[in-house]
Structures are given as C-alpha cells and as structure tokens.
Amino acid sequence: MKYIIALDQGTTSSRALLINEVGKLIDVKQKEFKQIFPKQGWVEHDPIEILNTQLEVFEELISTISLSDIISIGITNQRETTVIWDKETGKPLYNAIVWQDKRTSGICDQMKKDGLESYTRENTGLVIDSYFSATKIKWIIENVEGVKTKINENKVLFGTIDTWLIYNMTSFKNHVTDYTNASRTMIYNIKNLEWDDKLCDYLKIPKSILPEVINSSSDFGNFNYNGFEIPIHGVAGDQQAALFGQSCFEDGMVKNTYGTGCFLLMNTGKNFKLSENGLITTLACTFDDKVNYALEGSVFIAGAAIQWLRDSLKVIGKASETEKIAQSIEKLHDIYVVPAFAGLGAPYWDMYSRGAIFGLTRDTGVDHIIKATLESLAYQTKDIIDVMEKDSGIKLKSLKVDGGACMNNYLMQFQSDLLDCEVLRPEIIETTAMGAGYLAGLQSNIWDKDQIIKNQKIDRSFNPTINDSEREKMYRGWKKAVNRTFNWIEK
After folding, report:
1. What's the 3-state SS for 308-361?
2. Closest CA relative to residue 2, chosen from 454, 437, 293, 404
3. Diameter of the chain measured on Cα atoms
4. CA-to-CA distance for 75 and 233, rounded, in angstroms?
5. Angle, nearest 10°, between helix axes 468-483 and 366-392?
6. How far is CA 147 from CA 45, 157, 463, in A?
7. Which one, of 264, 300, 480, 292, lies nearest residue 391 by Cα?
8. Element (H or E) spanning 283, and its range?
C-alpha cells in the first residue's frame, strides 16, 4: 500500500495524517504548542516550535511504514500568520504574529483614513483588518531591530506558515506559496494574480521578500528526509483545503469549519464576486491553472471560546463535556455570550469589540454560561449564512460541516434549528487535512475529482425541530447582544 501524508499545521497544534492510496484515513498524530501573549491583544507563536512539532508528528506517523511507500506530502496551514526570517540561516527574526493578533489595528485605521478601503477590497477581495498578513509584515519591518538592514542586504524572506515549512523542509531551496495563502495577505491582487504594487509601496513591503505563488496542486519541492526525496505536491490554507476536502467543487456549494475560529466558504467558481454585506472574496484551491473564487465569512473565536472555558475559567475539563452540560439544562432565556476576544470578524469587522456576557440573572449558573458559549458558535455561523444568501441569491438547503466541534451533537442540532436547514456531518471530519492530501494526490496522479467525490460519506444529518417564531426570537436576542459589544475599546 502506498500513502499520502497530510501535514495540518493549525493555530494550536501541529498534526500529521496518513491517507492510503484509495483515500482512506489510516492514522493521525497531533502535538500542541505554546500560545504566546506578550501584551493585551497580541498573539504570537514560536516558528521553530511550529517546525519542530510538525516534524515530530511526521516522524511518529511514519514509524510503522516504509519511506519508499510515501507518494507525496500535502500541507495545510493556519492562514495569515506571519513569519519573517533570515534567508541564509533560516533563523526567524521575530516570533510568528498570529492571525488573531490585534497590534496592527492602528495601521489599518490609517490605511482607511488614507482612502485605501475601496482599492483594497476591489483588488485583494479583503477588507482592511489586522487579521491579514500585510500590516503584520509592516509592523515587524518597522519595529524589530535589524530587519531593515537585512532587507537592504537582501537577506530577509516573508512567508505564511506553509512557506515557512516548505523553506525548511526543502533545505532553504524553495520560497513558495499557493494562491489560497497569497490571497490572505492583503497585498496579493486576486484579479491580476500578482503581488500588488500599490499596496506593497504604501506599506513599504519590498517584493524581494515575497514568495513565488503557484497552483495549490503543484510541485512545491522535495522534502529531503533520511536520504529520501519526498515530493510536496499540495498546499492550501486551512479553510480552502476544507472546502476542497468536502468536494465543494460546484458553484454555490458551502461548508463550515468549526475550529479555533469558524470559517464558512461558498464556491463561486471562475467569477470574481465582491460581497455587499461584509464577506470577503478569496481564492479557492487551484489545480488546473484556472483559479476559482469563493466568498468567505470568518469568525475569529469559535473553538477558542471552548478553550477559554477550559483553560482560563477552568469550568470544564475537556471540550467534549459541553455537549452533556448543554443537554442537561433547559433552553436558555435571553443569555448570550459574545466571544469577541479578538474583535468581531464577518460580517461586522469591528477590531475594537471585546467579549461580553448578556442576560445574567441571580439564578444564572456556570452551566448556563457554558451552554451559551457553545451556542455562540452557531449564532456566529448564522450571521454569515444570512449575508451569504443575500450576496449569492442562493437559499441554503444544506450545510456541510467539519472541524472538531462538529462532533458535538447538541451544537449541530442547535445549528440546524437556527438555520432552518439540514446540517450534514461527514464520516471523516478531518476534511482540512484530507483536502491537502487530495491536492497532493491529484498532482501525483493517484486519483481524480470523481474519486474524491465518491470518497465523501455522511456520518449523520441534523434537521430543524423548532418553529419560526422561536427561531426568530432567539436570533433577535443575539443581534441585540452583538450590537452592544461594538467599539468597546477606544481607538
């Protein structure tokens, strides 16, 4: 049996998955790494720790197979997270600034004052927000000692996490990314498919530090491991990889990933379409030299809110406990948790919102707060679905779901009730990593699109059980709570 390896470098852990040549998931290895919070609103990772944990889970995964049986590797990664390193030594010049980081909000405000909102949206598909890579690059260049000097000496490279991994795995030979990751930087023109001169010049980001951009299913170089040259044949940002892994190949097909954040994407095909309602336009996975576009709604805090219950409040021991707790108490009456710990993403885009709990009464207990936190994942998803339906003109009939939190049956049923549509959970919920594996397998010619579609099997479907009146009342309360978090922090 031959195998594809999928490396899934996420926000809180590095994972490696073993997929056999018929598309069956055989094994998964995972290792968490440290979250670094130097100041309020700042979030960093150690790039060396990311690299080491990714290589460690790779080595654990392949311990029972022969290296000669590995066909190729696919990589999927947390997007927007920014690394800048020394070209010659490979040493990071600063910690990775994570997509959740808010330190560059002021730079974004200045861009807006300087009239760049329309240009940025029309050419990158994105709104101006600290979420994306561009202002993180600018911050490192301007605030980390020695970076400007090294840039002048042509010794500096930038990359999102995929690029950082590839550069190290190919022994510093390949400085490359794919269209999906490039489209998340806020300096990549997704109409012309090139780094944008105007935005790079404004932010004083030299093009010399930027990677080459190629198809998601391509030759990204070889990983030289113990004398074996293993091709890296697939790369995609995590959410586009999940869209591909769910075989959402047709226009109008939608998936939602419940991970650290919540990310809902709709395939819009070859058509570049701008949202009128707060979504962003991004590049989907490419494998035939013809780029596909997608509409995306990004929720910054989803599974991370459950981690907050576990790690900060210490009211649960593990995430899976929330299902039983939520089922054990009656329906909530006007209690809402808005987990805007990193501001609000789509469709609000308020960098200055912060988390809040509304509707507390004397009899509110810990379990009520746990249940309301869990339900916030579904409410935030509905926010995006509503505007996506307006932008696309398509009424959602079913929602494909994946990510760790989709295994929570209470959450999935609540999501179905709130959306008034069917929610479909696949047998393999590792669709992000499977997407990267499929992209690698396509380039390696071991399967095609039809085989990927055939590999999709449903574990369980959830259907609505409440009436319109109840649904509308719950959602009105949520919208009222969200509105009260806006601009909580002074600019």
Report:
1. HHHHHCCCCCCCCHHHHHHHHCCCCCCCEEECCECEECCCCCECCCCCEEECCC
2. 437
3. 66
4. 8
5. 100
6. 19, 10, 54
7. 264
8. strand 280-283
| Encoded tokens for 215 | 């198809």
Q: Which helix (H) or strand (E) holds 234?
A: strand 228-237
Q: What is the pLDDT along the chain (491 residues), one digit of tens a residue?
A: 899 999 999 998 999 999 998 888 999 999 999 999 999 889 999 999 999 999 999 999 999 899 999 999 999 999 999 999 999 999 999 999 999 899 999 999 999 999 999 999 999 999 999 989 999 999 999 999 999 999 999 999 999 999 999 999 999 999 999 999 999 999 999 999 999 999 999 999 999 999 999 999 999 999 999 889 999 999 999 999 989 998 888 888 889 989 888 889 988 888 888 888 889 999 999 877 778 899 999 888 999 999 999 999 999 999 999 999 999 998 888 999 999 998 898 899 898 899 999 999 999 999 999 999 999 999 999 999 999 888 888 788 889 998 888 899 999 999 999 999 999 998 888 888 999 999 999 999 998 888 888 888 889 999 999 999 999 999 999 999 999 999 877 65
From the list 292, 322, 305, the residue with the least C-alpha distance to 258 is: 305
H helices of 25-115, where?
Answer: 47-61, 105-113
Cβ–Cβ under 8 Å, residues 157 and 92: no
DSSP 490: -
Distance between CA atoms of 447 and 270, rounded to whole angstroms?
Answer: 23
Asked if residues 237 and 225 have their Cβ atoms less than 8 Å apart, the reply is: no
Q: How many CA atoms lie within 13 A of 73 on its CB side?
A: 30
* Total count of residues recorded for the chain: 491
Distance CA 338, CA 301 (A): 9
Residues 406, 412 contacting (CB under 8 angstroms): yes
| Cβ(323)–Cβ(314) below 8 Å | no
CA distance 211 to 173: 12
Token digits of residue 295? 């509409």
Structural domains for the chain? 3-236 (3.30.420.40)
If we measure between CA atoms, which residue out of 452, 451, 446 comes closest to residue 233?
446
How many Å apart are CA 261 and CA 238, to the nearest integer? 11
Work out whether the CA dihedral 197, 200, 202, 204 comes out positive or negative.
negative
